[in-house]
Specification:
The complex is a heterodimer of chains A (364) and B (324). Chain A is an alpha+beta fold. Helices cover 58% and strands 14% of the residues of chain A. Chain A folds into two domains: 89 residues, no CATH class; 217 residues, MetI-like (MetI-like fold), CATH 1.10.3720.10. Helices cover 74% and strands 1% of the residues of chain B. Chain B is built from 14 helices and two strands, in the order ααααββαααααααααα. Classes of the chains: A alpha+beta (364), B mainly alpha (324).
Amino acid sequence: MTRNTEHVSEFQLALRSFKKNRLAVCCAMILFIFYAGAIFADFLSPYSYRNEDRNYSYCPPTPVRFFDEGKWVGPYIYGQTLTFNEFYRRVYQTDTTRRFPVRLFVQGDEYKLLGLIPSRLHLVGVQEGARLYLIGADSRGRDLWSRILYGAQISLSIGLIGVLISFSIGLIVGGVAGFYGGWIDNVLMRLCEMVMMVPGFYLLLALRAAVPDDFNSVQIYFAIVVILSFIGWAGLARIIRGMCLSLREREYVLAAKSLGLSDFKIILRHILPHTVSYSIAAVMLSIPGYILGESALSLIGLGIQDPYASWGNLLSDNMSIVRIKFAPWILWPGVFIFLTVISFNIIGDTLRDCLDPMMKAERK
Amino acid sequence: MGRYILKRLLVAIPMVLGMTLLTFILMQITPGNFLDTIRMDPQVSEETIGHYQKMYQLDKPMFQQYIHWVYNLFHLEFGYSFYFNIPVAKVIAGRLFNTFVLSLASFLFTWMIAIPLGIWAALHRNRWIDRCIQFFSFICLSLPSFLLALVFLFLASQTNFLPLGGMHGPDFENMNFFVRSMDFLKHLIIPTLALSIGSIAALQKIMRGNMLDVLSQQYILAARAKGLPEDRVIYWHALRNAINPLVTLLGYEFSGLLSGAALIEIICSWPGLGSLMLTAVRSKDIYLVMANMLMGGVLFIIGNLLADVLLAKLDPRIRYDKKH
């Protein structure tokens, strides 16, 4: 009888049980597709995010058709012309006299793929004379689908960068507070409580007020990331501190101390790695908070500014009820926010369950 | 217990001050203040501006201004709202009730639905009804409240059944009391729903977990073994113990009472503290912002204290005074 003696690390074990959960794998795939969509947004979108045509303001979706009078003619759309009805409300008439074929790999707006390679190639597009609106147009006649793809770049990256910053702060503050204890711990924890004490949304607003009005969009983007990270670190720091309080009593910490390792190295190499399994799940579960924070800020007009797109920014059109009523497709970015949030939540929950048994074993 | 409460409150004072100082600095970092805005208005005389400057020591360095604000605070003087042109206390008092009603409505709705739902789910553990509840809770937990509010507003705009935001109908002044109340309730529905759905899902989950924990305890087995009717076992022995930990949550709910609804208020144009805060921040109405933050911080401290005290009252195992 041969025994399988392969060495399996904790993470491989966790990964295996993660893979068994079909729902979680499905969510991971959704997120993968979203992030890939964000990275290649320039290529995948039919138009640039600032390609506007005021004649198509709130143009309804142009359905892609395949058959004309029962005959297969390949994908095509009809053009839309803007008319006004007796109440001066926009009504789009479908012009069925001319077909505009939807082609793959067409030349369109200029862009730089990954910020490097200049190109004009777009995955789909139609020729001049009609505009392809897969899910509709926004107020300036920009293609909402393209803008959602571009918005993903901002909305999805804010979560990652924000979590990176706030977890670095949280881990270090929590680690230092828990390792040293005493007055350092006291001061740091009171600081955390001070940040946690302010209602999150109010703090968000107050911090936003400290951002100068003349910031350009890149600066505002980073300002928002920093603001969101500033709110997020405190909760994590408290939990990490609690873990470190018990970890510092371990013998290997004593051993490291007696060997003369500096405090900083002990925290970084011997204490914080033990909080990793908790942190990974916590990272996944806190990313939605950043995405929602950005969306909330942009929604009320304090976040990413036009013409740049983020999912919250795109939703801000919805703040006027009349617009939702006559152009319900501007709710679409919300669907993407929801899918992203639920995917992160499911993955985080599953990861926590996968990592938990090991944490329990560790505690014994 | 009295000593403990006193100690907690004393520790809280420097923290609240620190938090307000932080806010003060944040509001002053960027160039320009409300006086600049007022100066542009030709109707406001130099004298008035000079008066404001003297009143709030605006010509002095920032730290001195802050000290002055704190000094005024102890005289229950919260400052002057430059945007609304009336004292801050009056501005807030006008909005306080609206926010309070909305928070209370969503609080009552959440707890009245979530607790029975959690119990029900726990009693039907792993049956299809429980699975359904858990599935929908998971979805609701991931639905951001602002999105829910937008979707509800969209549905309302399609059906014309509910009013689209605001707090009163257009003809509010001429209504009698009954019609007024109905009108008010109708306006309350959408923001309440948007606020509650996520919390119901979360609370339901906690209640279910607690109930399942308690039901697996030995004393439940003992109660069943001695032949108590199942209803009495569940609603007398199990429920009381399962609901105990939730009392802590009550305290946290309290701390979010005035600020938790801020975003929904803005979306549903509910004239509460949230939309007030947005206006204040945008117009750099510093004392209004400070008062709002102060209120949020104080409520947070009271709420947390309340949670700890309630927990100690309900659970005899918890003692804060070391003497016992």
